[in-house]
Amino acid sequence: MTPRFLLLLALLFTPIAVQADEGSKQLQLFLKNLTTLQADFQQTLTTPELEGTFITNGTLYLNRPGRFRWEYAPPNEQIIVADGNRVWLHDVELEQVSHRSQHEALKGTPALLLSDTSPVDRHFDIRELGEKEGLVWVELLPKQKDVQFNSLRLGLIEHELRRMDMSDSFGQVTRFVFSNITRNTELQEELFIFDPPSGLDLIGDL
Fold it and tell me: Which branch of life, at top level (predicted)?
């Protein structure tokens, strides 16, 4: 083989290095001009106290700024709605509705990252993690101290959010895998309005 041909093979089969700030760029491009988002998700929860992993599935609806809806499918059916003013949690099995001021409920949370339109570094410190499992990863560390999680890791590809891994101070890890993602399509206004069903226990601020 000629030296030129060997050089060509080396270029073809050598992995392309991920730029040092590629994760931040992917995240910025994902959030740029994002108005609505719909995606299916699978959520897994791993906790040190209990053996095994708990898996739930559902659908996310997002309408920026400030509104979202998470629907968890049976048998663990729950609906979480942020209407721009309050966050509502409807536990269908328990026949219970809880609600809280949205400003207080979302401070320093992953939901704030998705629903808020302010710069990411306003609420989080950003750390590049490089490429793994075919995704480019970035870690967000909340600047606010009194929050429920320590670290949020985001896996992105082609400016889409595919994974979100959250670790909390109790050693629990919650992982979201997103699929069937549609971006900036019209969503029904009713998705982001919650009218508590009559006859259910209604609990004030959580």
Answer: Bacteria
